[in-house]
Amino acid sequence: MTASEPGEPAGLWLVGARGSVATTAVTGLLALKAGIIEPTGCVSAQVPFDQAHLAGWDDWRVGGHDVVPTPLAKRAEQLAEAGVIQYRVLEAVREPLAEVETQLCDGYQPATHRGSQADAVQRMATDIAEFAERHALARVVVVNVASTEPEFPVLPEHGTVAALDAAITEPGRVALPPSSVSAYAALRAGCSYVDFTPSTGIRLPALQQLAAQRKLPYAGSDGKTGETLVRSALAPMFTSRALTVRSWAGTNLLGGGDGRTLADSDHAGSKLASKTRGLAALLGGEVTAPLHIDDVPDLGERKTAWDHVSFEGFLGAKMSLQFTWTGYDSALAAPLVLDLARFTAAAHDAGQSGPLGALAFFFKDPLGADDHRLAEQFVALRDWATSL
Amino acid sequence: MTASEPGEPAGLWLVGARGSVATTAVTGLLALKAGIIEPTGCVSAQVPFDQAHLAGWDDWRVGGHDVVPTPLAKRAEQLAEAGVIQYRVLEAVREPLAEVETQLCDGYQPATHRGSQADAVQRMATDIAEFAERHALARVVVVNVASTEPEFPVLPEHGTVAALDAAITEPGRVALPPSSVSAYAALRAGCSYVDFTPSTGIRLPALQQLAAQRKLPYAGSDGKTGETLVRSALAPMFTSRALTVRSWAGTNLLGGGDGRTLADSDHAGSKLASKTRGLAALLGGEVTAPLHIDDVPDLGERKTAWDHVSFEGFLGAKMSLQFTWTGYDSALAAPLVLDLARFTAAAHDAGQSGPLGALAFFFKDPLGADDHRLAEQFVALRDWATSL
Amino acid sequence: MTASEPGEPAGLWLVGARGSVATTAVTGLLALKAGIIEPTGCVSAQVPFDQAHLAGWDDWRVGGHDVVPTPLAKRAEQLAEAGVIQYRVLEAVREPLAEVETQLCDGYQPATHRGSQADAVQRMATDIAEFAERHALARVVVVNVASTEPEFPVLPEHGTVAALDAAITEPGRVALPPSSVSAYAALRAGCSYVDFTPSTGIRLPALQQLAAQRKLPYAGSDGKTGETLVRSALAPMFTSRALTVRSWAGTNLLGGGDGRTLADSDHAGSKLASKTRGLAALLGGEVTAPLHIDDVPDLGERKTAWDHVSFEGFLGAKMSLQFTWTGYDSALAAPLVLDLARFTAAAHDAGQSGPLGALAFFFKDPLGADDHRLAEQFVALRDWATSL
Amino acid sequence: MTASEPGEPAGLWLVGARGSVATTAVTGLLALKAGIIEPTGCVSAQVPFDQAHLAGWDDWRVGGHDVVPTPLAKRAEQLAEAGVIQYRVLEAVREPLAEVETQLCDGYQPATHRGSQADAVQRMATDIAEFAERHALARVVVVNVASTEPEFPVLPEHGTVAALDAAITEPGRVALPPSSVSAYAALRAGCSYVDFTPSTGIRLPALQQLAAQRKLPYAGSDGKTGETLVRSALAPMFTSRALTVRSWAGTNLLGGGDGRTLADSDHAGSKLASKTRGLAALLGGEVTAPLHIDDVPDLGERKTAWDHVSFEGFLGAKMSLQFTWTGYDSALAAPLVLDLARFTAAAHDAGQSGPLGALAFFFKDPLGADDHRLAEQFVALRDWATSL
């Protein structure tokens, strides 16, 4: 592929393309193309990013992998019923949505997959390459928005490309979680990669080595869309004011599939860990920070988080702050998926490779950056994006 | 006065020296000198300000004006009963507190004052000058922490020093609110001036002209200690994420004298106005923002604020954030009074004059600065303070 | 009219028939008739009221007055867009909704009315009587769900039927607010009357005298659907536990027309007064109880209330409870309108007249009852209804 | 013992006599005797219970068991520092507190106990009997306020007195948890028994059989002092209004020893179970109800609970209520301990035996009663107490 200019088509390949976040992102992109919604929630559409060298809404083509067969249109209807998508928008994008449907391929599923994981990587890379060829795409950004996986054990084979290649070539051997199979396929297809989930994805030495070899940029991980977003705005308030946070407790109530997946302790492990790491980094040390994720199906697509912060001030005064955040998870995540695609494609165009720390603003557990403070992350993003 | 070096004595002159904030600030300063508390809540005591050229705790001498006769010791006992000051601290500072008591003078009170306002200015300037002389102080910072005044009408005489001097020379004529009489006295005595309240204080063209003539720095106004502090941390989260805030409602429950003063609409006027200006500046435009201050005496020294933010995200999704802040007003304000004294004295030493915009971090309605975003204000403060 | 049997048609005449509450009540009633929704929120549909002698959903015919011309179907669409009514329900009731539309008459509007108020009463009574005749209705219950009026001055003419009749006969004289004109018309037409708003309505000695003469029952006032409902459940908790409530602050954020009407202090007067009376009655005395109603248009049909209760326990311990209630005003009020119609018609059938204190369960400011405690009100309702 | 008359001395024997709740109860009782506090939070001191036949504050003598050696005075000082007890009260009761100290005996501790559990029962029964004799007490009520135990396995030996006696006679055999050893000792000494904790205590068939044989009354279990108290007031609001609760999530943040004990899943088991049983009973069926107890040491004696209720109304409208309760656990529990002693002694006097269902008002998991609705429980208590 050669460097693209604004106006050249760009590809967005979604892993988990039939999920809530992906469906909302695609519906929204189509509505933006149709000019029937404002880009509310799209960071890249506002000043000063509107002056950056980013592909326009019209430039994007969408494809993806998923393991479930529910058609996008059906999923979009469910999201309309749940209040995430307005009916007028749904009606307006039915046709282009059906077109995107034709670009979706079967995802990788260990339980049903025949052959080695190397075969899976190969097949998926081919899917992506064919999509790129079909649409004459200069760039494809692969974004993982699939369900969060259970934590996967660390294996010695993850250490180098060679060791990994040897391991995944063995038939029946499961040396990678699905998210990493997808990440591998993305790199194999010469694509940049974004992990919007806390799953392992590209976070293995072997894959990062491969990205470096191929000069591919990547970003992640775990989109910051609710409680952690607010934390990254509030925690610096306490530290900059020299107020000592003594405890920061959090409870997350999630409906939908997300609640089901994350309330299960195996799957929640990586999520809880990334949230807690961020808080300690923000506060400059460990604090008492109990954290819960509960499955509350009747909330549907909504999620509610309650945080209680107790802190100490002058002369030992004990004080508290609590907040309740209520939002639609998919509506919060979807515009960031579009932002990440635009920024990552632009980085690729600009010849950047490796972890894009400047995109930390979007993530709970940023790759390539240490600062979790939201305002500082925004400054870093702005400076980086406007200099591309 | 000549430029002071760290180690030289510096003066803090408090207008409203017997109030809750002043008493807490003085008690805390004495406890810091005694080494029996940590400087929690003191911005200037933490990295990187600990490396700036600021007067140390031991360098400070305190005096002040007040119109009420309650001794500091009595007020400190009330604050101990209310949970703001620990009994062990109170006991430890009784002696130095009695010493500060000897440095307090009668404040200016229109109802009982005989003679012209010029006389009052003169008398108060002399009080401050004598305090400075008594302690051989290189610098005195005058900080207004008196009760918020009712809004004072704008008069043509406020326009120039000459016009103002003519007006306040007339016996019995009330051309200035008490806060501005104090500010004038501060300038007359060659002192820098900080307004921690939303009262008029130095915010008159004539007084700012005088400060410029005398090359005196000043800062204000209206200390940011609760609801507005949180707003200035949270509002940029919404704007940087391109989320549209549709309404931001607030209710403040205040006990103590503050509640009594501010729930009265005349006195609240300036407070409500400064809060609302800040929010509009933060969000880049007007939003529906009903705001209430209620007097709830049983809360004592505590204050509680509830804010409800409704915002719109991608595809028009309606979401909300609410927070409840519960704190001790005096414990939040007092360390900032000490910080402001240290920073303002250092600015004076460094030859700076006029409004100190770099101190916007501390104020609801900053003089000399437009940015209300907390993180940006902190960066500005840090850069300024470390270059002094 | 003669006593009706369950199965005989009954009439519900809505004053403010095109408003949100009325439209939701009618849509819901039609959906209940169609068997496509459950009677969630309908007190009268659950055990043990399902055994009481109440008219069934199918028995009800609906008509009403309103001063605005927006068709019911249009209003229902707006409510669907606002999330109150599901689209599938809206579609299912379009036809019967159009039928109800034909039963609506112009309301009384002082600004445009020609002739005396007596003429208005006469005309409106005739509207109701014709509706009753058209449908061969044994009973008609008139329910006021119009916008809350500004407080109306107390006049000597309100004291007796004779004095009132003399006053309203004078052409151009405005001796009654619109709500009382409607109440008068209801009584004149031999109907029972329910006031779901805090407007004056039937609460004039002359009208209550008339109801007594005509042996008509009536109920009111001001439907208890949110903050006050929660208060009436929580306040008895404190009193029965001997915990002393020291303050109870409340803030109400309302969207839609309700917010516009009530945030204006004139209209809010009666609402705020009835809320405060209830709280004092519940707590056995006055407490600090600041209360606000704010107009927040972007909330649409939703309302949010935040209450902060500070209370004292054993050994003077200071503690607090706060709650946030978020609901759809119309969805909360509408089923109660249906309940009140059923209970009031049954009371009329049973020969009861005067204020129906047993319906206090439904009201902020109950007529004919002193107890504001929700649980006790429910017991009173149950005992009364099951003995009808 | 013979029936006591008001005015005769009565005994309160506290199991866990050196804990926060016991120390607060004893300090408060002594302050009530001294007439220096109001009986705020004491249900039995208010109308109409002030007319019931209950022992007066002056009539009570206090003793107890505990396994920790911290003197009461020391514990009371810690509670003063934590804000539960005012210093002026502490000073005023120092002398009588030291007197109570002399009445405390060592508790039963499996780890250090030599001999059989029957020996322990015997020794503890003797402690209580000697206390009763020393003070010529007509009645002694034993109240368990010790730390919550881990759940104890159900054994066949718990089925009858005979089987239990055989089991506990075996040296070294641990057939009963400590709470049940205490309960057995209470019954053996002819005392009534109250379980303020969720530990097993008297809830074994054998012990209830013994109480019946000896005609002794008992009450329990698990004092209702915070989140569950609010739930029992709020849940009936939803059911009586026919609103369908879809989920009720709760998070409890506890400081002090309570947090440490209960955040551990073994000990929390019984607490969580009793809370959940109550909610299902209140709502008439199971709902999604995730519940957490977190240890947050910096909260000290305070506890904070956040509950989020999502419910459905008319036409399927989705709405929510959330509340935050912040209180001092010991200040909430202590007056109920005194109430329970007074009511239980009166029941014993009146010849009642077995579970006192009328005291359900005080408990999360009431013995002898099914109704969890607070208002109904209060009516039952009132009717019962005033007829004693």
Helix share bin of chain A? 40-55%
Classification by helices and strands of chain A: alpha/beta
Based on the structure, what is the oligomeric state of the protein chains? homotetramer
Examine the coordinates and then state which fold CATH places here, giving the name of the CATH topology of the largest domain in chain A.
Rossmann fold
CATH class of the largest domain in chain A: Alpha Beta
Mean pLDDT of chain A: 94
Rg from alpha-carbon coordinates of chain A: 20 Å
N-to-C span of chain A? 19 Å
Number of helices of chain A: 13
For the record, what is the CATH homologous superfamily label of the largest domain in chain A? Answer: NAD(P)-binding Rossmann-like Domain
Count of folded domains of chain A: 2
Record the strand order, biggest sheet of chain A: 3-2-1-4-5-6-11
Low-confidence stretches of chain A: none
Backbone shape of chain A? globular
Binned strand content of chain A: 15-25%
CATH architecture of the largest domain in chain A: 3-Layer(aba) Sandwich
Order of helices and strands of chain A: EHEHHHEHEHHEHEHEHHEEEHEH
Compute the number of strand runs of chain A: 11
Largest sheet of chain A: 7 strands, parallel
Structure, described:
The structure is a homotetramer of 388-residue chains. The first copy, chain A, is an alpha/beta fold. Chain A has two domains: 10-223 and 331-386, NAD(P)-binding Rossmann-like Domain (Rossmann fold, 3-Layer(aba) Sandwich); 227-328, Dihydrodipicolinate Reductase, domain 2. Chain A has 13 helices and eleven strands. A seven-stranded parallel beta sheet of chain A has the order 3-2-1-4-5-6-11, sandwiched between helices. Chain A is globular. The model of chain A has no long low-confidence stretch (mean pLDDT 94). Chains in contact: A-B, A-C, A-D, B-C, B-D, C-D. Chain B binds chain D through residues 83, 87, 324, and chain D through 83, 87, 324. Strand 10 (318-328) of chain C pairs antiparallel with strand 10 (318-328) of chain D, so a sheet runs across the interface.
